[in-house]
């Protein structure tokens, strides 16, 4: 527990353009793994027949389920864009452009987020 407090304290003292993406990348990675377990558990209802599957999937066809879809979309996009940014920085030695790449990926995230609102909520 002391180790966790030290990590949180360290993040609080070192807020800059690389600490926040680093933390978000780790958090979204863990969240996506947890989602994967939920996804497999929900889809495993197919082995109990089509009625059980439709009931399991139908649990998420409500406003809370759509909000969860939107949150999942953002987690995937944050993880994807930050992973691409890290790959570009490492492969092509673009350390000097790291902050610009971060702002570019945030711009792409904003555009994708606004577009996804129309797809998920305004249908």
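Q: What amino acid sequence fits the structure above?
A:
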């Amino acid at each position: 527990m002391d180790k966790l407090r030290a990590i949180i304290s360290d993040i609080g003292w070192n807020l800059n353009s690389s600490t926040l993406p680093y933390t978000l990348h780790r958090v979204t990675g863990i969240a996506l793994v947890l989602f994967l377990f939920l996804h497999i558990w929900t889809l495993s209802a197919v082995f109990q027949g089509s009625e059980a599957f439709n009931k399991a999937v139908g649990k998420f066809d409500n406003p809370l389920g759509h909000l969860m879809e939107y949150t999942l979309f953002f987690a995937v996009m944050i993880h994807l864009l930050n992973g691409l940014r890290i790959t570009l920085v490492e492969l092509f030695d673009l350390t000097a452009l790291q902050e610009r790449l971060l702002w570019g990926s945030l711009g792409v995230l904003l555009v994708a987020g606004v577009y996804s609102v129309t797809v998920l909520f305004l249908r």
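Q: And what stands out in the fold?
A: The chain is about 80% helix and 0% strand.
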